[in-house]
Polyadenylate-binding protein 2 (Hibiscus sabdariffa), 101 residues
Amino acid sequence: MDEEEHEVYGGEIPVEGEMEGELDPHNADVDMSAADEDAVKELDEMKKRLKEMEDEAAALHEMQAKVEKEMGAVQDPASAAANQASREEADSRSVFVGNGC
């Protein structure tokens, strides 16, 4: 069975403690200040992008409100009243059937 495992993995199975890149937390020589600086820089960039997206969303909302206002102003009151009258007329001819199953 051991020979089959070695063939599958292409070599010897490493013994615990001999793996490459394994770090001993008590003897770690990692410079955390560089990692912290990178994290702070990345966070600042994300905040900047979020602010840009929020500003763009606000501008789009303003544009949409402006267009809706213009669309409402373009529609004349006579056509709006006629449209309301046709809805009321259609409602008067409607028959409620119910919520049958």
